Structures are given as C-alpha cells and as structure tokens.
Amino acid sequence: MNTSPSKKPGLREALGEYIAKSKLRLTPERLAVVEAAEALTGRFTVETLIARVKEGPMGVSPATVYNTVELMVESGILRRLAPADGRSAAYEKATMMARPRLLLVCSACGSTKEIKDPELVKLLDRRRFQSFDPEYYDLKIFGICSKCQRRRRRVRSV
Ligand SMILES: [Zn+2]
Hints:
The chain is built from six helices and six strands, in the order ααβααββββαβα. By secondary structure, it is α+β, with helices and mostly antiparallel strands. The chain has a three-stranded antiparallel β-sheet with strand order 1-3-2. A three-stranded mixed β-sheet has the order 5-4-6, with no helix packed on it.
C-alpha cells in the first residue's frame, strides 16, 4: 500500500478515525474499497465500486463493498442519494458539495459577497432533475448592493 506522508488527509484517514472509534478494524479489504471510492469522481453506485475493486489485486467480496459503503455513510464521508425510480442508490463523497458557493453580485458596481444559506443549500442538494445528474453548483444572485442603493437614493433625492 502506498501511503506517502505528503498526501493530504482523505477518505481513508476519515474512515480510519471513525473505525478506530467504533472499535472496528480497517482491514486491507476495507481499505481497498475506500481507495476505489477515493478514485471515483461524481456520483457512483455500489455496483461501480464492486467493478472497481474487482480490477484490483485484492479479492474483495461484494458483501465487504456493501458494508464498507455503509460504514462510509455512517461516518459521514459518503452521502447516500435517493435513487431515481428503479435505479440503485447513488453515493457521492460528502466533501463534494460541502462548500457550494452562493454569491450576491451587484449588477451596478460588480461587487460580490459570499453568503451562507443552509436552507437553500439543503433545497438544492435535494433537488433532482430529469435526465440530468448534477455534480455541483455555483449560484449567483444578481441585484443591487447596499452601497449602490444608497447612491441611487442620494441621486434621486437631489
Ligand atoms: Zn453595487
């Protein structure tokens, strides 16, 4: 196993911590599943993961893949997404959409301000689109900033 110290903490470290806390063991088979998940981008199904680990040198059983995915969901490093009709549940790394950007952009002066809106984020995360698999978003809301509003009021009152 290649564990170069320069590598930034990833799924493996996060799951390792969780497993240690739960008094379970991070077996080489579980590690192989985590590494396969780490290599995938976007959304994936357990079937994709099973196919991935099959290509590896380790003989990992589908049951191990399923229960490692469960562990990753419990530990919060993977998110389970509600399946579309008749399809298997999809998963994505929880870090993927962890920091979506919501920007207020002033269309008069061009200034931007990043805002936090957990309710809107939740809504967008849950939103499903027909024949489209969203991976991330970057939302800009255009309008007039408070400075420009003040400036406009001043101009009008003169
Ligand atoms: Zn402005």
